[in-house]
Write a structure and sequence with these properties.
The protein is α/β, with parallel strands linked by helices. It has 3 domains: about 70 residues, Translation Initiation Factor Eif1 (2-Layer Sandwich); about 190 residues, Rossmann fold; about 190 residues, Rossmann fold (3-Layer(aba) Sandwich). It has 17 helices and 25 strands. Helix 4 crosses helix 5, helix 7 crosses helix 8 and helix 7 crosses helix 9.
């Protein structure tokens, strides 16, 4: 076992049995990717449809070690572990709950924020197998939106020996800028920065993952520096299963590996496995329900309105999405009814497809004042967002750029107009609205049940997500077995 990779070596009497133990491990450590049956190589029987997480020679990501060891023991094999990891960073015996001085105010993980220090304590993790206990400071912190992921990372820094080399990895420019500003204050010195056009490293360095990947691809010195890292913290780690992302993280030699996300295992089974292999199991969880009880987050009132979509049946998913969501006048009329009901409040309307956003915007702006739209390539999105924050803009239509890392505490009404069934998208959009404004304890959230074959199923999927989060859900129509009824 080393910090990043572990290798199975088979020997002794067990090796004389007819079946190779590694073949059993490969059957255990495999999953079928989504849509595998449509892949040409599978249809031609050139591929068995599985993604394997242990090589034919027995190599696998160290995060899987407890799983592999326990499965091997259950199969009757004797397991011995040669621990070749470098010295693992260890949290201080007496933990401090001081986060740091941010904008002139000293923040502490105390009172309603005491859970943040509990998240840090969970990193001092041990696992048991092969008749031994192993210090295993790696895994996932499942932190709902508003839990204060940067504060948790600052606490990790403050509870490690001075000079510990820490790498904080992000994937979006907005989160990167916020992180550099936050940590430069909390750690008490300007942090290192790795982004396009900049490569300056310190004991605590914030890095864009794309830049890390590109730099490491071209420089042995960058690879050497990554190998020397002692602590890896990955923000919004649900994205880390992507090929380029996971490759970059595999170059980081850190033995303490902390992945943080509000939707850590809400992706495909392949991406989830990659996350676990690179980090480890989920070590702790702070849910939206807990944050609402602590009054860290506002309580959402989920209102589901019915879009009848009466008309000829459609044949395909894309036809339904186009007719019943992206170009539906019925839907826009429902949204305008919500806007009239909340005419004096700040309203955010979501979309994922730009054409859908402009379809709604072109109608709404003719009937309401102070309406703006922003999306991924909007040149004025920073200014438009600021106008919304200051109350100058009352109605803002926004694409997925607001899913992550944007703090807008003055959203009073959220209209989830985008449709679809993604748990990640639902939870991240809702998270934007739950940020406490210091005045109100609740926020109104509207979603639309689209009465169709595919879009109807997606609507029910979204409602199930809200209910799993233990939100109060009101369906403003008669329901029978989850479906609208007359």
């Amino acid at each position: 076992m080393d910090n990043v990779k572990t290798k199975v070596v088979v020997g002794g009497k067990d090796y004389l049995i007819k079946s190779n133990p590694i073949s059993h491990l490969r059957k255990y450590m495999r999953v079928r990717p989504k849509g595998y049956s449509y892949v040409t190589s599978y249809r031609k029987r050139q591929w068995d449809g599985y993604k394997y997480f242990i090589t034919p020679k027995g190599s696998f990501a160290t995060g899987f070690l407890p799983m592999v060891a326990k499965f091997s023991e259950a199969m009757g094999f004797n397991v011995e572990v040669e621990d070749n990891r470098s010295d693992m960073p260890r949290l201080n015996l007496e933990l401090t709950n001081e986060i740091g001085c941010i904008d002139g105010k000293t923040w502490m993980a105390e009172g309603k924020y005491a859970y943040q220090l509990e998240q840090v304590k969970a990193i001092g993790n041990y696992v048991s197998f092969a008749n031994r206990d192993f210090y295993f400071p790696r895994g996932i912190l499942d932190c709902a939106t508003n839990a204060g992921k940067n504060s948790v990372a600052a606490l990790i820094h403050n509870n490690l020996p001075k000079g510990t080399k820490i790498l904080f990895v992000v994937s979006s420019r907005e989160i990167y800028k916020q992180a550099v500003d936050f940590f430069s204050q909390s750690v008490g010195y300007p942090v290192g920065e790795v982004c396009a056009g900049k490569f300056k490293v310190r004991d605590f360095t914030v890095a864009m993952v794309k830049t890390l990947h590109n730099r490491a691809d071209k420089s042995l010195n960058v690879k050497k520096w990554l190998k020397e890292m002692e602590v890896l913290i990955v923000d919004e780690s649900d994205e880390s299963g992507a090929k380029q992302y996971s490759k970059a993280l595999s170059l980081v030699g850190a033995g303490m590996r902390v992945f943080v996300s509000g939707t850590p295992l809400a992706s495909t089974n392949v991406h989830n496995m990659i996350q676990i292999g690179s980090s480890g199991k989920v070590l702790s969880k702070i849910s939206n329900t807990e944050l609402i009880k602590k009054k860290v987050s506002q309580k959402p009132n989920i209102n589901i309105l019915l879009n009848e979509n009466i008309g000829a049946p459609l044949l395909s998913y894309s036809e339904e999405m186009h007719a019943m969501i992206h170009t539906s006048l019925n839907r826009v009329e429902i949204i305008e009814g919500i806007l009239r009901k909340h005419k004096s409040e700040q309203v955010l309307i979501t979309f994922t497809i730009k054409e859908h956003g402009y379809f709604m915007y072109d109608i709404i702006k003719d009937n309401f004042e102070n309406v703006e739209i922003i999306h991924g390539v909007s040149k004025n999105r920073k200014e438009a967002l600021q106008r919304f924050k200051e109350g100058e803009t009352k109605i803002l239509l926004s694409s997925q750029i607001l899913q992550r890392g944007v703090n807008i505490p003055n959203i009073r009404v959220l209209i989830m107009a985008h449709g679809g069934k993604s748990e990640k998208t639902v939870k991240q959009y809702v998270g934007r609205a739950l940020r406490h404004d210091g005045k109100n304890d609740s926020v109104e959230i509207y979603d639309i049940y689209d009465n169709g074959l595919y879009v109807g199923k997606h609507s029910r999927d979204r409602i199930r997500i809200y209910k799993r989060e233990e939100f109060d859900v009101i369906e403003h129509y008669k329901v029978h077995r989850g479906k609208p009824t007359n």
